[in-house]
Amino acid sequence: MKIQTLGARFALMAALCLATIAPAQAQFWQCVPYARMVSGIEIYGNALTWWSQAEGKYERGREPVAGSVMSFAPTARMKLGHVAMVSKVISDREVLLTHANWSRRGGVEKNVIAIDVSDKGDWSRVKVWFAGNNGLGSSVYPVNGFIYADGAPEPGVQGDGPLAPLTIAQVDLSKFGVEVSLQK
Fold first, then answer.
1. In this predicted model, what pLDDT tens digit does every residue of 66-92 receive, in sequence order?
2. How many other CB atoms are found less than 10 A from the CB of residue 170?
3. How many angstroms separate the CA atoms of 35 and 79, rounded?
4. Which of 21, 84, 85, 99 is 20 to 30 A from 34 (CA-CA)?
5. 13 CB-contact burial (10 Å; exposed 0-12 / middle 13-18 / buried 19+)
6. What digits encode the pLDDT tens for the residues 54-63?
7. Is residue 9 helix, strand or coil?
């Protein structure tokens, strides 16, 4: 009986060790380090601090530009705010975002649509594509504005190896006759 107990304990310990190794190989992204990586904007701290931290260090404004970071203001459900890189400006009220930790915890979404729904067309309120309903979410999010990279490297995801970000959603706009380029 002692050998069986010892064997069961060993099997449990082996399983626990394997469980701690597997997550180390999976990539789990928060919005801040991911936005910093893809935009080149060197700001640290929670997303809710990015807008104020950018003052005097990076240009800020109300117009989306490819490579800029959209700074979301905190809400009751999104207490730490959110940051997302603008991968493409589609029109004066539509952009594509590349960001992390939005639809699914730790997941990355590339080139998903965000629409300005503000009354004045000033990008102060947006709706963002959400994987849960495979379309624009029902929530409207307040936006501080855009932080411009100013000479940062071209936006794009680094690496294709085993630690590359897991993409959970990507919209192929070529099906709709829209050409997508990450050039500024």
1. 999 999 999 999 999 999 999 999 999
2. 13
3. 18
4. 21
5. exposed
6. 999 999 999 9
7. helix
What does the chain come to in residues?
184
DSSP string, 34-80: HHHHHH-----S-HHHHHHHHTTTS-EESS--TT-EEEEPP-SS-TT
Check residue 153 and give its pLDDT: 39
Give pLDDT < 50 ranges for the chain: 18-25, 151-166, 182-184
42-71: b (≥16 Cβ within 10 Å) or e: ebeebbbebbebbeeebebeeebbbbbbbb
Residue 11, Cβ neighbours under 10 Å: how many?
10
For helices 47-54 and 31-39, what crossing angle results, to 10°?
Answer: 40
Question: pTM here?
Answer: 0.70
Between CA 53 and CA 59, with CA 56 as vertex, the angle to 5 degrees is: 90
pLDDT at position 169: 56
- State the Cα–Cα distance between residues 74 and 141, nearest whole angstrom: 9
